[in-house]
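note to self — DONT lose this again. spent like an hour looking for the file last time. sequence + predicted structure for the chain T wanted, 382 res
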Amino acid sequence: MLMSQIGFGVKFGNWRCYASSASSSSSSSSSSQSEVAVVEGGNGRISERHQIRLGLPSKGRMATDTTELLKNCQLSVKQVNPRQYVAQIPELSNFEVWFQRPKDIVRKLVSGDLDLGIVGLDTFTEYGQGNEDLIIVHEALAYGDCRLSLAIPQYGIFENINSLEELAKMPQWTASKPLRVATGFTYLGPKFMKDNGLKHVAFSTADGALEAAPAMGIADAILDLVSSGTTLKENNLKEIEGGVVLESQAVLVASRKSLVQRKGVLDTTHEILERLEAHLRAIGQFTVTANMRGRSDKEVAERVVSHPSLCGLQGPTVSPVFGPDGEVKHYAIVICVPKKALYKSMKQLRAIGGSGVLVSPLTYIFDEETPRWRRLLSTLGI
């Protein structure tokens, strides 16, 4: 196979593979004479199986946070044996959970061996590589936050380099001596550099911690996932302006073919999506109940809505409170308040006559219909 060089490449061991804008050529005769064929993954077709399959990360913090989220949505994952790779979610009929490496979840969605999956956006983008059959159902599951970022040394020739633009203009990088970047993201890395006009870049994989690569002389820079940035600083590395490839967090993804062609997948996806949205929307929200003296429910409501922070999701609920003699002198107000605004809201309630304030956390907030569900149907052309 011949590929034309365009100035940047990916190096694996002693091999350097260059991306090409030209089509590759191969000998059909040598292909037909080959005695051994290696098939990688499935063919993306819908198999005859009847179970709906969800792929979940098998190890690490991502695995723990994913099962915890599902548990909070009343979708607890049940394993007969913790060493088994298959499990059930009793609340979902005809449904299987398969524990896999995140990159294998994406690959098996493409091959048709899984219908749904939860992975990081970075993994989805790196291994999905723009495949049109892959769809993001929910793009913000609120955990696994990190960013894929370019980092360079704080010393030497990079001491005064603080942006991607400045890095690109350094005269050191030539076709014979490109900028060496160590990374595990061999799809996103070259694509990012090409999109940003960096022509002379060579990407290589490295065993162990990438942060050590520049100090060892293996690479000039690294492209890796960053959370707090502490590890970079401890290894005398720095992020640069314009060097973030993508912001990542956990996402729910699906196979378009499965959603459209496999019986039950779309309905099950709808249920999972509604449970996720209801729980995630409720995180950090509180129900606040207070009694307020007033002449009528309308007069009390007008007092409450005069403060925008007390309006709740769609406005306050105002109900009469009947005294021992059957007379109504107080009204009960129920509103939804964000956690960060709780104390401020309580002070405002007191200021307008509220008393006996009760606060309780919310578990779920169900909308009439989730916007993400409408968006999914639109994407599928349904």
